[in-house]
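Example: ABC-2 type transport system ATP-binding protein.
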Amino acid sequence: MNEFEQRLTEVENHFQHNDIDLGYRRLIDCVLDLADKSFYQEIIAYSDIYYNENSSNETKIAKAIQLVEKLKQATPPPYHTEDILLSTKNVEKAYNRRKFKLHPITFNLKSREVVGLVGENGNGKTTLLRLICGELKPTAGEIDYQFTTAKPFSYELKTKLVYVPQRIEVLYGNLMDNLQFTLTCYGIDSSENKLLAKVMLARLGLWPYKDLEWRQLSSGYKMRFELARTLLRRPKVLLLDEPLANLDILAQQIILEDLRYLSQSMRNPFGVILSSQQLYEVEKVSTEVIFLEQGKLKLQGNKQEEKADFTIIEVDVNNTKEELLTAFSSLDLKEIKFNGGSYIAYFDASISMNQIFAAIGNSTLQVKYIRDISKSSRRFFVN
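Written out as structure tokens, the predicted fold is:
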């Protein structure tokens, strides 16, 4: 089974298990990978069914499976390897009129990777993004763009390396006109233009709003639209500064999940660096997390491979600290402290979450919330 067949099988499984929303988005990804106008038309027709309030789930699933069967007969798209897109080598930035300094940062970004850039406000996240995109020049160190021979700070580089700031630019006109204009600027002005614009609107959850003016969108949907417009440019590197700031919790999860899936495109893969204060959600989709504190690198590494010195949990209970200590008395508890709403408990690294759950189950604790933060950058915020 090749990569494309495997992806189609996953889409089929989503629909068969009634995960219609995820199956729909992943189905569009497969259509985009094929880059075939006839399949663009098919998924547009299916989108009318998907968003029709009178369409039953059974109809949506059946029609989707029919389209999957057609996609299985198509020639699979090429699969590009995961090459290094850019490297930063001891990049620093000092400001003459400010005391703040970004200390040496070194990391690689590969195609299909999502690098999460986390830390509190004013710790250098935006500075690092602006250095990479060429809006700022580093005081020391260098940035090596390996996906192009274009010179730093050139227009040619910025066509493939796209920076989306937290405050996006104001646009005029309706969504379709803006997307079609973007496609025309990048050489797609045939019959494919309108089809591809519609497909991308569907992919980013904007299908019900395709006839609206940009100014009529909420701030969260404006960010979705900016992503749609950006992805039509087929970037190699996508830099996002606080893309989750104006989104609700569910929308944050969907956008991050979409970025991970879209970056793994078979035909047009790209790498993502995104800054955010939504630690848990970013860590779920990131292949690497860079944590900045006062301009210094506090944490860098793959969250699956990082070794923790302690098993650390964050727990919120309707109990006193003494009752919590009693519940954990049989475990090797090193420290427990209150963090303004929840407790942070540090156990010896040999203590597993299963043991902690067992201790809670054998107690009278009324747990409202519990989370393992042993490998999460969240632990730096609660120290």
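The two ends are 48 Å apart (CA to CA).
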